[in-house]
Amino acid sequence: YKAHRPPAPDDLIPQFALVREATKALNIPGIELEMVEADDLIASYAAAALAEKLEVVIISSDKDLMQLIEPGVSMVDPMKQKNIGEKEVFEKFGVTPDKVIEVQALIGDSVDNVPGVPGIGPKTAAELIGQFGTLENLLANVEQIKQPKRREVLTQHAENARLSRRLVELKKDVPLPAPLSDFVIHPVDKDTLQEFLQAQNFNALIKRLNLVGSGQSSVSSLGRHPGEGRDPRATTTENFHMDPGQRLDDVVVAATYQTIRDEAALLRVIAEAKANGVLAVDTETTGLDATLAELVGISLSIGAGSAYYIPIAHLAEGESYKNTVPAAAGGQSSLFDAPAKPHGARLADGQLSRERVIALLQPLLSDPSVLKVGHNVKY
Q: How far is CA 94 from CA 97, 100, 128, 159, in A?
């Protein structure tokens, strides 16, 4: 189940921590439970709220949550600003909300690895459930179906249909990690909210909410999980402060630039980048022709005003790339495959070898939990 789902996009991973920080800044409870689907948590809280005779509004456009709609439970699509009730569910599935899982069991979902029944689409599924009421009643009376092919596939794939129904039905009995009383609306602490919004440079929102202040702020680590990193804008707060309404051109950034000449220093930078969760990368090359250029150095940055340069093929004094024979481009698929230096040239002292630098950087550059910001990456 859901085995075919691709991993989370690289640019999404650093935002998990930001979502936690945003909910805390807005004084909204954030609920997480290891190894439990968010949909099942929502279903369980909705059931608990209904039992207390509370009205439930689910802010989502997820079709899988539409099975929860009933008197006292509705949905709102936040992107379309549209209410979703029984009428909207019927328009989408051709059945009422209490029959949605019956239809989904027949249709299946290739994204979530829900098999369904081959050849049964939304329209046919709605017709069948409209006629027989439930999946089990349909399978028990399959001989009443007039179309031979449809009757055959339902008979052959009956167990897959039953499995699909179990997979799409949301659990409403998950133990609640926090009581409903935690969801009581509390006033937002303006200082906390302003601190978060300033860290994200949401200056227009600060003005709209009348939170304009003069204090400098830094993003907190509330809710951050190890390895998930930070938003790139939130990593600069130690040496980058910007008041609401201030022009970017007027901001002075305290800069620290370092040349990395030994392995220990490079390992420290790599560790810092992993902890930070974001890394900007640029390359220094011998030219602009990507098929002939050779790698001379690598620039790394983890925040505004903090950058590192790793020289790996700078030439000794008196040497020039213009006076050397270019390396053959045949078989070169990337800068990292290029020779460490052009033929006949002497390298300057105090540089790490290209092979060692690439070997050390490779795990970091391929780590999906670290967001990569590329400078001129198309080159």
A: 9, 9, 11, 24
**Could you give phi then psi for residue 282, rounded to 5 degrees?**
-145, 155
Answer whether residue 106 shows pLDDT above 80: yes
Q: What is the Cα–Cα distance from 233 to 84, expressed in whole angstroms?
A: 35
CB neighbour list of residue 297: distance below 8 Å, 6 or more residues apart:
283, 284, 309, 310, 311, 312, 313, 314
Sheet with 256-259, side-by-side order of all strands: 256-259, 306-311, 295-303, 278-285, 371-374
Token output for 308: 């590192």
Q: What residue type is assigned to position 223 of the chain?
A: G
Rounded Cα distance, 280 and 288, in Å: 20
**pTM score:** 0.56
pLDDT digits (tens, 9 = 90+) for 113-158: 899 999 999 999 999 999 999 999 999 999 999 999 999 999 999 9
DSSP 180-222: GGGGS-----HHHHHHHHHHTT-HHHHHHTT-----------T
- CA triple 86-88-89, angle to 5 deg: 65
Provide the residue type at 365 as one letter.
L
Domains, the chain, in order of start with CATH, read: 28-180 (1.10.150.20), 250-321+343-373 (3.30.420.10)
**If you count them, how many residues does the chain have?**
379
Q: Is 246 helix (H, G, I), strand (E, B) or coil?
A: coil
User: Is residue 222 within 8 Å of 24, Cβ to Cβ?
Assistant: yes
Residue 152 tokens, joined: 């055959």
Q: Is 184 exposed, middle or buried (0-12, 13-18, 19+ CB in 10 A)?
A: exposed
| Sequence-ordered alpha helix ranges (H) in 80-182 | 86-93, 100-107, 122-132, 135-140, 148-156, 158-168
